[in-house]
Amino acid sequence: MTQHEFDVVVVGGGIAGLSAANRAAQQGLKVAVLERGDGPQYLCNSRYSGGVLHIAMHNAKDPAEKLIEVINNATNNKADPELARALAATAGRAIDWLQSEGAKYIRVGNIVWQQHVLAPPRPIVAGLDWKGRGPDVTLRQLVTNLEKRGGKMFRLPAVTLMEKEGQSIGVEAGTNDGGGTKQQFYAKAVVLADGGYQGNAALVREHMGIDFAKVKTRGAGTGIGDGMRMARAMGAQFSELKYFYGHMLSRDSFTNDRVWPYPQLDELGTVGIVVNDAGERFVDEGLGGVYVANTIARLADPLSAWAILDHAIWEGPGRTARIPANPQLANAGGTIIRADTLAELAAKTGIAAAQLEATVHGYNEALAGGKTASLTPTRSAHPIVPSPVNKPPYYAVPLCAGMTYTFGGILTDGDGRVMSTRGAPIEGLYAVGATTGGLEGGTTGGGYVGGLIKGVSFGMRAAEHILKTLKG
Ligand SMILES: Cc1cc2nc3c(=O)[nH]c(=O)nc-3n(C[C@H](O)[C@H](O)[C@H](O)COP(=O)(O)OP(=O)(O)OC[C@H]3O[C@@H](n4cnc5c(N)ncnc54)[C@H](O)[C@@H]3O)c2cc1C
Fold it and tell me: Is the distance from the beta carbon of residue 402 to the nearest atom of ligand 1 less than 6 Å?
């Protein structure tokens, strides 16, 4: 078996892993990254991303106190306070550090959460469009930087953590086809940055109770839970694993690659209403698209949901998203059903007509009387303000849940040290990025903090903690 020795071995070459690797190499440590993807533009969620560095839809350079408040609001106070403090304290520095590594930003007008968008930005069109865009360019720059600093990238999957007396002492890597010689990477510190478990059907079923085949993977699908499996074998602790970050997508996503990952259809479903084939509302749309997507994914039939809206919504919120459904969904060939009456809409969609009319009228009445809270299910007016559905033509858009990445994962402290079930850090073991939990999500499944800034910030923090520990 081939053996290597490094100060730090990072598992995964997304934004989190490459940030940890570069920050460690920049401080003089001998670093290796194991990445199981192929080619110079191996797929990962970081490369697919929209490239917006933000914290819960706010400027990541806002003062730390404000960011903590923002994180707590977004997560219903479910975020681990230590992680929230660590992120808020590091985010501004992380933005500057990434820029010093060669990342370029553009800012989009006065939109507070789009003040640091990796350049060049993706065009305002439907579909997947990552080649040569900011995240792709930035990742390639980080690989170049690492190699210039003497770091090495091995295109191998990490398989098992090596352990001695409860401490992590390195990683064993295999080959992607399962054959070939295994290689052992001894390291003073291992950083798991493998991106979560959204690409693993069995784990999604086990932890979320979701039928993977009926939920659209809205990312690269390269996070397959290896880090979680390896950390579990060393006695790691996990956060709530039940929820995912995602959006409502066109149900056509399963057959039409031009309608995912954009446009997301949250603006349609959450300003109007979401019903099932029986014409009944089944979710509080006002809690936002992430929450609604999690609810759709758990329906007995996750492919039975529809966004119901009217012309005012289609021409209003339908046009204001970053990559808006109107007109991007139609441009990409996505299904949009229009009708002058609700009865006609029901006939065209197969939704139960009498119930659809009753649902829409009941909703409009409750809205006019300021009584949406008494609807069943209730309809919150915050954070999404409801609009009436009463200006023809009416629209029905078939929905599915799109899963971008898993909210839950390995529990760490504020420096990325993996916590054991005994409540103490596991020596030599760190985890960063989307493989970790504790910061996002919560019981409403609605808390989104910002995957890119989380990856860069905790990647840096882990590397800095490793150096501090090695120096004694
Ligand atoms: C369409 C889309 C748009 C998004 N837009 C935004 C946005 O605008 N702003 C934002 O903040 N977030 C956004 N996100 C979320 C964000 O991209 C992720 O949260 C973040 O990139 C996660 O980074 P990561 O490094 O943890 O994981 P990843 O980027 O997924 O990287 C993990 C890497 O680990 C590798 N790996 C997995 N298992 C192993 C193994 N056993 N051995 C070796 N390597 C392994 C994978 O191949 C992969 O390369 C978006 C995501 C998607 C899909």
Answer: no
CATH number at residue 53: 3.50.50.60
Q: Is the omega angle on the peptide bond into residue 40 within 30 degrees of 0, that is, cis? A: no
Is the pLDDT score of 446 beyond 80?
A: no
User: Ligand 1 centroid to 219 CA: how many Å?
Assistant: 8
Q: Check if 225 has its Cβ closer than 6 Å to any atom of ligand 1.
A: no
Angle at CA of residue 411, ends 409 and 412, nearest 5°: 135
450 lines ligand 1 (CB under 6 A): yes
Tell whether pTM > 0.85. yes
Give 352 Cα–ligand 1 centroid separation in angstroms.
Answer: 40
Q: Please determine, for residue 77, whether its predicted confidence score (pLDDT) is greater than 70.
A: yes
Ligand 1 near 434 CB (within 6 A): yes
221-258 pLDDT, tens digit each: 999 999 999 999 999 999 999 999 999 999 999 999 99
Q: How many domains does the chain have?
A: 2
Question: Do 200 and 341 fall into the same domain?
Answer: no
DSSP output for 283-351: S-GGG-HHHHHHHHHTSSSTT--EEEEEHHHHHTGGGTSSS-HHHHHHHTT---EEESSHHHHHHHHT-
HEC profile for 248-266? EEEHHHHCCHHHCCCCCCH
Q: Are residues 221 and 289 in the same domain?
A: no
For residues 383 and 308, give the distance between their C-alpha atoms in angstroms, rounded to a whole number.
19
C-alpha span between 294 and 204 (Å, rounded): 12
Work out the average pLDDT over 286-315. Answer: 96
Among 130, 192, 452, 461, the mutation site with the greatest number of ligand 1 atoms within 8 A of its Cβ is 452
pLDDT of 175 over the 90 cut = no
The single-letter code of the amino acid at 136 is D
Mean pLDDT on 201-217 = 97
What is the atom index within ligand 1 of the atom nearest the CA of 52? Answer: 8
Residue pLDDT, tens place only, 406-444: 999 999 999 999 999 999 999 999 999 999 999 987 656
Tell me the residue range of the domain where 340 lies.
247-403
Q: Among 368, 383, 403, which residue terminates a domain?
A: 403
Question: Which of 403, 431, 447 delimits the end of a domain?
Answer: 403
Residues 109 and 150 in one domain: yes
262 close to ligand 1 (CB < 6 Angstrom): no
Is 67 found in the same domain as 178? yes
CA 339–ligand 1 middle distance (angstroms): 40
Nearest residue (by CA) to ligand 1, atom 49, is 44
Instruction: For residues 277 and 399, state if they share a domain.
Output: yes
Query: For ligand 1, is residue 168 a contact (CB within 6 Å)?
Result: no
| 309 CA → ligand 1 middle, Å | 33
Is residue 37 located within the same domain as residue 128?
yes
Return phi, psi of residue 239, to 5°.
Answer: -85, 180
Evaluate if residue 306 carries a pLDDT over 80. yes
